[in-house]
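User: Need the bound-state model for heme C:
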Amino acid sequence: MIRHRTAHPRRATAIASVLAAAAPTALAALAALGSTGLPAVAAGVGPAAAQAVTPDTVKGVFLDSFRAKGIANLGRVGQDETNAACTSADATRKDLPEAVRARVEAENMKTIVHPADGKYLGDWKAGEVLAQSGRGSTWTDKASDVNGGNCYNCHQISKQEISYGNLGPSLYQYGKLRGYDADTVKYTWGKIYNAKAYNACTNMPRFGHFGILSESQIKDIMALLLDPNSPVNQD
Ligand code: HEC
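Assistant: Bound-state model below.
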């Protein structure tokens, strides 16, 4: 999971974002508990109400534990079809059935919008700032605040970083190792835009699809990964 080598002021926000991303998994774990039909006492409800806990009861307790605050509204607890499919697979501790996985990925693939001007790479310096920022969309942010990409929270990005998460693979030397060809560029754009187009139940947020990052922000992050001059692609 996430390892912290040093305390860092941006960390609190970053953790909040990761927890938000992990919420569907927590829901799945709770739902799995409910689906075992354990007596209520085992779920901490109390002996007086000792009755079977159903997935719906558990979901109710889960939903009831969230409050809207600032720009973080309860709409975020709702799941789209993709997340709902992955949650129910998690709850039964099975992978998505093959046909569902293929359909979910195809639906997500349709949402990917490539840059209208055909230019995929922006400014790696701006991309580095975005990749290292976990700000945006939390209840302590304003709607007008610029979202970061929070990439460092799950990925190693450069050799200089002293702290990063390892939920996702290292992106250090991404372009150098993968190449700078058109297919790699298009795949990387798609992955950042909507990661679930390639891996239905990945934990990676769908940055373009949900408007977390704008087209020009994604271009800057693309340059961080795929500009040969970016620190990512140095030795
Ligand atoms: C909450 C964790 C999380 C965050 C935040 C996140 N990712 Fe990921 N990412 C993952 C995981 C997990 C994978 C591997 C599974 C998969 O392929 O979906 C991944 C895979 C990738 C890949 C594919 C790597 C390959 O070798 O094909 C790229 C590229 C990538 N992420 C870029 C980014 C960028 C850029 C950002 C920031 C804008 C970012 N990720 C933010 C979790 C995350």
